[in-house]
Amino acid sequence: MNPTPSTPQVITHVAELQRRVHAARQVGRVVGLVPTMGALHEGHLSLIDASTAECGLTVVTIFVNPTQFGPNEDFAAYPRDLQHDLSLLAGRGEVLVFAPDTATVYGARHATSIEVVGPALPLEGEFRPGHFRGVATVVLKLFLLVRPDRAYFGRKDYQQTLVVRRMTDDLHLPIHIEVCPTVREPDGLAMSSRNVYLSPEERQRALAISQSLLMAKHLIAGGTLDAATVTARMRERLTAADLKIDYVALADPDTLEGVATLDRPTVALIAARVGQTRLIDNERIV
Ligand code: AMP
Question: How many domains does the chain have?
């Protein structure tokens, strides 16, 4: 299980996970949870560092959740490399890795899901029907398995943070949700496990996503407050790089309702395909 002494312990069974979490609680440790699908990068590591800074025990879950993928999506191809993930976690404080198999999380007769509406309906909800149902279901399962005090999510998946916060509030879960900033490559591309799919040429074209978010900020700073004008310019920039747009939205940060005039808090959200690879990104622009 443990290739070198400095890599964290990997737990696959629920009883062992709960024994370890219970032991940490007994000695008064705060328990942090960082749910991931593995293929770890600096974005994930920033969440783990935030958790280890605040919690005496951090549980990193590595589980590629089948229920959040659509039938024509990349579940089978999704990058999986547990040994590499563990090497990235070496020496990162009190970290425990929970890497269950699918049957542990979803029993053979699994028949219960979390239905989410509200912030789950627009944008990703339209383009990936059932995605947030799968996300909410697995996050709730992980919350109940680990019973953390705090759970860490990345702003990179902005809509997901709204869905998780809504569910946590609606179900009165005694868990503090922490949202951490998006970690980017030096040239601006948001880090994502899916970036490994990109050819060098696609990797270059993908920059149009973060650049159009930046452009939106510049346009607003220059006095352009009409959302339709800003959206049109962003779409032009993406299309010029031969990206296929799923959506470009300028929306209220809490409700994701469209904003018409950029004189109030606004988040810009993009989903676009570079070749076969679908990428999402967002930035607060007002
Ligand atoms: P994933 O493994 O893609 O399901 O992501 C696990 C967690 O890492 C989620 O909370 C993501 O929002 C977060 N995350 C992914 N990429 C980044 C990034 N570039 N910066 C910050 N957090 C991220």
Answer: 2
Radius of gyration for the chain, computed over Cα atoms and rounded to the nearest angstrom: 19
How far is C-alpha 167 from the geometric centre of its chain's CA atoms?
A: 16
Regarding the beta carbon of 153 and ligand 1, being less than 6 Å apart is answered yes
* Whether residue 246 has its Cβ less than 6 Å from ligand 1: no
C-alpha span between 68 and 57 (Å, rounded): 27
**H or E stretch covering 136:** helix 131-146
Q: Identify whether the C-beta of residue 97 lies closer than 8 Å to the C-beta of residue 89.
A: yes
- In this structure, are 169 and 88 located in the same domain? yes
Phi, psi of 81 (to 5 degrees): -155, 80
Domain that holds residue 220: 193-284
Question: Is 2 within the bounds of a domain?
Answer: no
Q: Atom of ligand 1 at shortest distance to CA of 40?
A: 2
* Residue having the nearest C-alpha atom to atom 17 of ligand 1: 43
Within a domain: residue 187? no
Q: 47-76: per-residue pLDDT in tens?
A: 999 999 999 999 999 999 999 999 999 999
Residue 3 has pLDDT above 80, yes or no: no
